[in-house]
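Look at a sample.

——
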Amino acid sequence: MIQEFRRARRRKAADMIQVGDAMTGQMVGRIGNLSETGLLLIANSSLENDALYQLRFTLPGRTAGTLGEDLELGAQLLWSDRASAPGQVWAGLRFVALSDAQARCLRAWVESPGGQFV
């Protein structure tokens, strides 16, 4: 039996969830897995160590009018590592300054039926 030591349950992103930089409008990558406290980002290029980012993404199954079209969250880069695919980087980020509504939205998506957990 594998013991899980993470503070929050992480759901694998089965669908392509594009992640954009809210400050520049550029796509920075896609979500590998997501929890209410952070995410694994499969980035299109290297990110700055320990930097803060303002990320924007839409969770599958969400529609306009439910907490807005997108989630926009501040995140701090904790680690990164070159992926096996050329030009891709694995990056672990933790969310900072999350509102209660954003945390509830993330928690509801992670716990919704049909998810695979990592």
In short: The chain has one domain: 17-111. The chain is about 10% helix and 40% strand. The first strand starts at residue 11 and ends at 12.
